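Input record, target 12 of the design panel.
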């Protein structure tokens, strides 16, 4: 019944492509490469891969199975599992509610750069201070943020199959082809710098793949592990109710086991390709120092690289930013959808009405957060050591603070209260084979709760206090 009212994905492919659309976002394209560059290249890759097939698999399986079994979004899904645990659904609901305040702002920044390169202003974008001047201005970030927000809302307004699935079917294959083209192009690069040294894309690629063990102490290893784990959550869109909502739209005959594997592979492949495209490019034109750019990587370092590429630079830049915009849009859609679906269940109002109200609310929020670098600028020191302003605070509360706590509580709920069989039954529904069942049981009951506990301590800054790290 509920499903008929809500609509659903057309089938396995529709679901997988939409879930991959949610998973592949700015996290893959921007965050993954800079973490890999910072955290020892191949070492980070190996750790990340191991985490994907263990933790990522466990959390993704849980979310999707909860969604399909209960046919509900987070609040009512957890309430249905155990009425006393409705609070967990409410906390989970808060994550997309918070993420949505800033995701369209970042989408707006990306859109702005598409326009900049289309109108031939790329050289200016490579100039020092361009990005800062842009985000601290009072009109442009708001306008672009609102455009991105409205496109997102339009897609969600059109429903699950006609809006979300359709846009993912269109955008994800294009994104994939584009990222492969740019990654291969990055490998062919070669440039002689002012220091007379010639660097090639292949050397940069080797740097990306080779595990760099220098300076890896136990505490450093541990912090890489936690970085990789935090990235994994964000990247797979787990523990924020999104995959619960998407799971609730999946038909009963779809094989969830295959779907989970396909989503894991797709998300990881795109992250890997993003690194393969960005790390060699930066290496060729800026050397290893360029890798320390951190979050400003795609808006500050890459424009410099595009300029250094010469004539083809603006073309690659447009390809890159369009691809990033597709990635961000399909993710932003999933965030808004998770909020919409919960609100529809709470209010019993139709999708269109709920979307319209949410659109108004989030246009206001997007504008406020977009002005967080100018009119509403203030900064505070966050418990994880980062000095943040409005956008960083929203990001910190949703990703660093809430997500590990939600995962911790949900693994306890599934592992010890409802029992992992509850999930296993859904994975095996219709005679399907739950291949990694044994591992799932061990992970959900023992490994995940312990690691999530440690991750929560780390993100609140308590871990550093306990061990005296700074
Ligand atoms: N998984 C997306 C990414 O890697 O960028 C980001 C994301 C989507 C985060 C949806 C949060 C979210 F609710």
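The sequence produced for target 12 reads:
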């Amino acid at each position: 019944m509920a499903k008929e009212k809500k609509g659903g994905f057309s089938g396995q492919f529709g679901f997988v492509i939409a879930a991959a659309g949610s998973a592949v976002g700015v996290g893959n394209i921007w965050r993954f490469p800079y973490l890999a560059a910072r955290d020892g290249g191949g070492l980070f890759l190996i750790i990340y891969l191991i985490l994907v097939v263990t933790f990522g698999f466990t959390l993704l399986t849980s979310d999707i199975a909860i969604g399909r079994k209960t046919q509900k979004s987070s609040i009512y899904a957890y309430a249905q599992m155990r009425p006393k645990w409705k609070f967990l659904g409410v906390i989970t609901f808060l994550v997309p509610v918070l993420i949505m305040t800033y995701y369209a702002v970042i989408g707006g920044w990306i859109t702005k750069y598409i326009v900049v390169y289309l109108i031939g202003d790329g050289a200016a974008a490579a100039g020092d201070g361009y990005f800062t001047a842009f985000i601290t201005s009072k009109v442009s970030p708001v306008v672009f943020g609102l455009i991105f927000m409205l496109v997102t809302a339009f897609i969600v307004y059109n429903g699950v199959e006609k809006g979300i699935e359709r846009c993912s079917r269109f955008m994800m294959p294009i994104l994939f082809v584009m990222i492969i083209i740019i990654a291969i192009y990055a490998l062919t690069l070669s440039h002689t710098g002012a220091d007379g040294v010639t660097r090639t894309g292949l050397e940069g690629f080797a740097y990306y793949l080779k595990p760099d063990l220098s300076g890896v102490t136990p505490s450093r290893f541990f912090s890489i592990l936690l970085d990789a784990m935090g990235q994994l959550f964000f990247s797979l869109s787990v523990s924020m109710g999104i995959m619960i909502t998407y799971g609730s739209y999946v038909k009963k005959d779809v094989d969830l086991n295959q779907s989970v594997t396909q989503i894991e592979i797709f998300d990881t492949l795109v992250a890997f390709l993003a690194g393969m495209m960005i790390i060699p490019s930066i290496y060729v034109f800026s050397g290893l120092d360029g890798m320390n750019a951190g979050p400003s990587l795609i808006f500050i370092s890459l424009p410099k690289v595009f300029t250094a590429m010469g004539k083809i630079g603006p073309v690659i830049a447009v390809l890159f930013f369009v691809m990033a915009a597709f990635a961000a849009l399909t993710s932003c859609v999933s965030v808004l959808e998770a909020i919409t679906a919960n609100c529809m269940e709470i209010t019993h109002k139709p999708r269109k009405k709920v979307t319209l109200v949410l659109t108004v609310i989030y246009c206001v929020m997007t504008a406020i957060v977009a002005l967080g670098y100018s009119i509403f600028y203030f900064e505070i020191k966050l418990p994880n050591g980062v000095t943040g302003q409005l956008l960083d605070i929203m990001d910190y509360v949703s990703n660093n603070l809430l997500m590990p706590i939600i995962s911790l509580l949900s693994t306890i709920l599934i592992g010890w209260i409802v029992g992992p069989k509850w999930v296993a039954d859904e994975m095996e529904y219709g005679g399907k084979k739950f291949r990694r069942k044994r591992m799932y049981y061990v992970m959900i009951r023992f490994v995940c709760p312990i690691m999530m506990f440690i991750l929560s301590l780390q993100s609140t800054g308590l871990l550093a206090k306990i061990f005296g790290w700074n």
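The mean pLDDT is 93.
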